[in-house]
Amino acid sequence: MREMPANQLNPRIKNVWRISDAIWIAIVFLCCFAPFAIIAAVEPSETWAGFVALMVAVVFAALFVFFVVVLPPIRYARWRYELTDDYLDIARGIFWRKRFIIPFIRVQNTDTRQGPVLRAFGLSSVTVATAAGEHEIPGLGNEEADLLRDRAAELARLAREDV
């Protein structure tokens, strides 16, 4: 079996994942909690609504701790990538490991992306597109992402010229 790719993401990506996951969990929590809390407040005799709201809050707290405290360091440790002259190698996943070997002859496009949370931490994502789909390397420093994007585009151009 091939060795794992050598490069890791920027450690600041853990905070980006924490903030992004916390936002999504809070939105889902409010959507699930609010109806039952309103029923419990408007009609106090409906004790089941208060119980359901309490259970939603407990599940929210457990998910919040899992996604914000436990998951990011594990996710970070399992995310690897490597750029060689012939291919881009990406390995990720905690329970279901995924390994992508993307030959540069198949690369159609390379991009960098940066949302508001990534921008706040000075990070970018590099996306490599093929006919089969897009592969993203999240959480690279802005300069590193630009260099990786440009190098991948150059290697893809050279691979097409060799054919």
From TrEMBL:
Keywords: Membrane, Transmembrane, Transmembrane helix. The keyword Thylakoid does not apply. The chain crosses the membrane at residues 21-42, 48-71. It comes from the Bacteria. InterPro entries: YdbS-like_PH. The keyword Transmembrane applies. Residues 76-150 form the YdbS-like PH domain. This is YdbS-like PH domain-containing protein. The lineage of its organism: Bacteria, Bacillati, Actinomycetota, Coriobacteriia, Eggerthellales.
